[in-house]
Write a structure and sequence with these properties.
- The chain has 185 residues and is mainly α.
- It folds into two domains: 1-52, Orthogonal Bundle (Arc Repressor Mutant, subunit A); 57-178.
- Helix content is 74%, strand content 0%.
- It contains eight helices and no strands.
- The chain has helices spanning 6-26, 34-41, 45-51, 55-80, 86-105, 111-129, 138-158, 165-178.
- The protein starts with 5 loop residues before the first helix and ends in a 7-residue tail after the last helix.
- The mean pLDDT is 82.
């Protein structure tokens, strides 16, 4: 039996992903079943299992794709300018994948995604702040900044994106750099 062409396979995979995301938006991920995804995507059961072993595997693939996109966005930002802006990276990633990020870091989100996103962002934060903090303090500052950024965006999504992203990014930037103010030492 001949395999489908790559474009058609990619389109089928994307339909399955979109079906899962649509269902996940309506209920916690633990409540999303393979049967529901199959029905919503309009594919055969065997087609679903050609692409994914389980719904958990599907969610992991979605998370992997998003982490990869974050890394590519960061790499592109680093290559295109000598000045690396971690808040700009987070804002740029949001612009491209905001709904999915909001879903994964929201109330019914994925703790594994949040942990992986923080692990992805931490070295980038270190790089962005390397001239501002001592080597000894760097891991602590990176953890604080990374956790703060993830929490800030999670709250923003929870609040229905109640302020414009053009206002949120400068707020995030000022908060990130205010943690580096060592006044009083």
């Amino acid at each position: 039996m001949a395999k489908k062409d790559p474009e058609r396979r990619a389109a089928t995979r994307q339909r399955i992903v979109d079906a899962y995301v649509g269902l996940y938006k309506a209920r916690p991920s633990k409540a999303v079943t393979a049967s529901a995804v199959i029905e919503k995507a309009g594919v055969n059961r065997s087609t679903f299992y050609e692409y994914f072993v389980s719904v958990q595997d599907l969610q992991r693939a979605i998370e992997d794709d998003l982490i990869t996109a974050m890394e590519k966005t960061a790499e592109s930002a680093i290559v295109s300018s000598g000045d690396f802006d971690i808040v700009g990276l987070v804002s740029q990633t949001y612009a491209m994948h905001g709904d999915l990020i909001g879903l994964l870091i929201g109330e019914n989100g994925s703790a594994s995604f949040v942990a992986r996103a923080k692990r992805t962002l931490a070295p980038l934060v270190l790089r962005a702040l390397e001239s501002c903090v001592s080597l000894e303090d760097a891991p602590y500052v990176a953890e604080f900044v990374t956790s703060g950024l993830v929490s800030l965006y999670a709250l923003w999504f929870k609040n229905g994106e109640d302020i414009l992203v053009e206002r949120l990014a400068p707020l995030a930037r000022s908060l990130v750099f205010s943690c580096l103010d060592r006044g009083g030492e």
